[in-house]
């Protein structure tokens, strides 16, 4: 039975970089954000989003993600409403993806809101990626071409590191990539996962 490693961390912690490193080391990685994007292309889901948030977040038939983000990242109730539509679809997408990796001992499920969504309960092992707040803010401003205020409001919607760490088996501090990679190798050894030698 394939075990699931939940990999999480706050916005800007660099968890996707860590996920990619696990992937290079031979552990298959599922990125929940990518799954959510696939799910959000489904006509059925888009209709549910339209019913929940109205036509004004659509440009014709196309979902305006920026408008939707503006609504949900400033209001916990609206975010919960969106998650209730998207999460069941992501769960189905992940289960379908898992079918291709049934011969692996471990796969990684990478999600920013692993705890907030309750999906952590379905993981066998949990890793939290951390980084100092200022580094995280800078990373997101550069990556998303956004403002400090918007980053801080998104951070407020997520659990803090302390809360995440209290429910995690491992913590990777990702302010220095070389050291963070060494942590990945240590975790692989502890879990007895064969590393990709290629």
UniProtKB/TrEMBL annotation:
The keyword Electron transport does not apply. Pathway: Cofactor biosynthesis; coenzyme A biosynthesis; CoA from (R)-pantothenate: step 5/5. It catalyses: 3'-dephospho-CoA + ATP = ADP + CoA + H(+). Its EC number is 2.7.1.24. It holds the Pfam family CoaE. InterPro entries: Depp_CoAkinase, P-loop_NTPase. GO terms for cellular component: cytoplasm. Keywords: ATP-binding, Coenzyme A biosynthesis, Cytoplasm, Kinase, Nucleotide-binding, Transferase. GO terms for biological process: coenzyme A biosynthetic process. It is found in: Cytoplasm. It comes from the Bacteria. PROSITE patterns: DPCK (PS51219). GO terms for molecular function: ATP binding; dephospho-CoA kinase activity. ATP binds at residues 12-17. NCBIfam families: dephospho-CoA kinase. Catalyzes the phosphorylation of the 3'-hydroxyl group of dephosphocoenzyme A to form coenzyme A. Belongs to the CoaE family. This is Dephospho-CoA kinase. It comes from Flavobacterium nitrogenifigens. The gene is coaE.
